[in-house]
Specification:
This protein is α+β, with helices and mostly antiparallel strands. The chain has one domain. The chain is built from five helices and ten strands. Strands 1, 2, 3, 6, 7 and 8 form a six-stranded antiparallel beta sheet that branches. The longest helix has 14 residues. The N terminus is likely disordered.
Length: about 200
């Protein structure tokens, strides 16, 4: 329940039927399409919506989801529809302004200590360059997994935001996460396949 609530509040992403690459600036048609798509799929869970935008390394390992401006609008519309309303122009504008010039990721990670996620480091690799995050959101403590007390014991939802400068809609990037023990997880994303 808590995990589902975190998904609802913090992020959501979904693959449109016609992928055109990550768009830095959305036109009116794109905005209307995202709002329509999200508001007409309010019954879907976030994991169902996120599946196509997510790289899942499996239970006990981790997953990463690319959060684009388009996808943010879909989730905004879905959440608004759950309260029987449509997002306002002001909410849409605010959402797009907050996502402007950045690339964001939501990551579900697993560990054995309750505070494992608080020491997670992230780097975005792009054409041989490594970029550090401009914003990181790491929980001080994690949630129990369905297998607790067996391994993996804990699960945490982490967020990372990076500058989009120089990254194009058809480029490839890799999110690299490293835990306190030096264990590395790699999530390669082809932006041309996402919207």
């Amino acid at each position: 329940m808590k995990r589902e609530f975190l998904y609802i509040i913090l992020f959501g992403v979904l693959l449109s039927p016609q992928a055109e690459g990550v768009q830095l600036k959305l036109g009116d048609k794109d905005i209307k399409e995202a709002i329509y798509y999200g508001s007409h799929r309010k019954e879907l869970s976030h994991p169902e919506l996120l599946k196509a935008w997510r790289i899942d390394l499996g239970y006990g390992v981790g997953s990463a989801t690319l959060i684009t401006p388009y996808a943010s609008l879909i989730i905004l519309a879905k959440e608004s529809a759950l309260t029987s309303r449509e997002p306002t122009e002001q909410e849409i504008r605010k959402e797009l302004e907050e996502k402007s010039g950045q690339i964001s990721f939501g990551c579900g990670l697993y560990g054995e200590e309750i505070d494992f996620a608080s020491n997670c480091k992230a780097v975005l690799e792009y054409k041989g360059e490594k970029r550090g995050p401009t914003h990181t959101s790491l929980p001080p403590s994690a949630n129990y997994t369905k297998s607790y007390p067996a391994s993996p014991r804990y699960w945490a939802l982490c967020f990372f935001r990076f500058p989009m400068t120089g990254i194009g809609a058809d480029d490839k990037v890799t999110l690299v996460l490293t835990d306190a023990k030096g264990k590395e997880l790699r999530f390669p994303f082809d932006l041309s396949q996402l919207r």
